From TrEMBL:
It comes from Streptococcus urinalis 2285-97. Keywords: Membrane, Transmembrane, Transmembrane helix. This is Efflux ABC transporter, permease protein. The chain crosses the membrane at residues 43-66, 86-112, 118-145. The keyword Membrane applies.
Amino acid sequence: MSPPITLIKKKIIDELANYFKTDKHLLLKANSQSMASYINQSFIITLICFLLSLFILLLCATYQPLTQLKQIGIKKLLGHSHLSILSDYVLSNCLLIFITSVIFDLLCLMLLEVIPQYFFMSLIWGQLALIFFYLLTGLIVYFIIQQVTISKLLKGF
């Protein structure tokens, strides 16, 4: 005797074959496949754009202090500490990143009709990672500021 599940399965297949006017064997044969992947073309493009953005952020964060070494030397000569000089460069840009992030989040909220699950969570984590990376580049700037001395500036660094 067949279990009741097999009888129900056969009955459903017969009804579907009658409804679609096709053979039962064609219904049971797989004629298409699908595949899910974590690494695909859009992920790679997004990753390249993200890494390029981080590289540009690194260049921008270190370029400004490098072009203003004479002003840094004058500030050190006037007695400013390394941290106060660093805060002049880092805090204003962190504030700019934060304000831009809030504006971007609000624009996403207003312009997107359908917001995917965890979209804002991923936005906030990405923005926090951006600020963290910028603060890490601030450490590079801090080490540059520590290396600047009046004697090195007079020699041409």
